[in-house]
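Exercise 7. Predict the joint structure of the components listed below.
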Amino acid sequence: MIVGKPAVASGKWLRPDRLQADLVTLASFGGLANGGVTRPAFSQAYREAVVWLRTQMNDAGLTVSTDAVGNLIGRLGPAEGPAVICGSHIDSVLEGGRYDGALGVLAGLECARALTANGQVPARALEVVAFVDEEGAFLSLLGSRAMTGRLQKSDIVRAAASDGTRLVDVMETSGLDSRQAAWARRPPEDFNCMVELHIEQGPVLESALLDIGIVTSVVGLHLSRLTFSGQAAHAGTTPLDTRRDAMRGAAEAITRAFEALERDFGPDVRLTFGALNVLPGSSNVVPGLVVMTCEIRAESEQTILELARDVELICRDVAAHRGLGFRRQLLSYDPPTAMSARIIDVLARVAGELSFSHHLMPSGAGHDAQSFADVCPTGIIFVPSQNGLSHNPFEFTAPEYIERGLRLLHAFLCHRLFASA
Ligand code: HGY
Ligand code: MN
Ligand code: MN
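Solution:
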């Protein structure tokens, strides 16, 4: 094995066609008839995808391991010492797309294949990582939070899916002991830097006709569960003025929350009531209980906390005049996270050297990279999303853009793996 300066920085050993083939194969796990995927963390489809990916990593000559929380790690190069972490996630949202997360993991794998194609072993280790449950079927950014020590034992014990399935139980089904999850934490000196290639999931790059986005910061994300409790009653015999209708309260609160958003906050602030359960859920019963998620995202922490407060005040006012109970539970809060200026500079320089059009931009989506930002230099590379669509089966990024993202990732990795940086 030859160790030292790369003969591969040119990327001539990269095979974008092999990456495309991998994306197609991975999309078959939890694949939908319309080309999308449903592959939540710890599901059967997810577990099958992990088995397949483990084999691909092995075949690529990586040393493969699974950590205490279920992250799949493929390491190339020295067994000891800080590693360049290159990863993302292969879990998906329900009825999601085939590129979200998958691109970052499979592009990292393809870079590893290219690096070893002619016997080059980097002076510094590379780790290709598929972080578990980035999408938060149980706990958002579970795997990357665990690896960087941003997870409490109580978070894992408390975590559950929207149908009530507990994280500790599905971890056990996957052969993981949730009581050991804290062992997934690694010290900052394990990491030289972290880089994630990801689809933009928005319209900015496509509308600006740009090849690459280099992320400056990831928006903050405040996620809470809001519960309105009233009284289930007969839909036919119960007069409107005697009802304690939890659904009517939730509907009024949602409407007023969006009115406040549009009146008092800027166009870049996001408010989403994405999941809503109406109980008991029969057409002839006045809803006695509504449980819904409330997600707020913005670039400024103050904005997030102000909107969260305003939404809570609206809910409490609605509950008071409709005779309902109201409860808000904070599920998670990730502050706005800046990416490393040094990594941004290198990515911009290398993108320029490759003649890829690019610009610096914030990320409206959360990513595993944000878990690393305060433990090592961290960066995110975006490639365009067609029609800005994501978290949708028709998510698509054209092969030429995927190839440019792959080549930029590879050139950046060569810079870090063989240089003294
Ligand atoms: O929701 C997000 O921003 C990410 O896709 N998990
Ligand atoms: Mn996603
Ligand atoms: Mn993602």
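Discussion. DSSP finds eleven helices and 18 strands in the chain.
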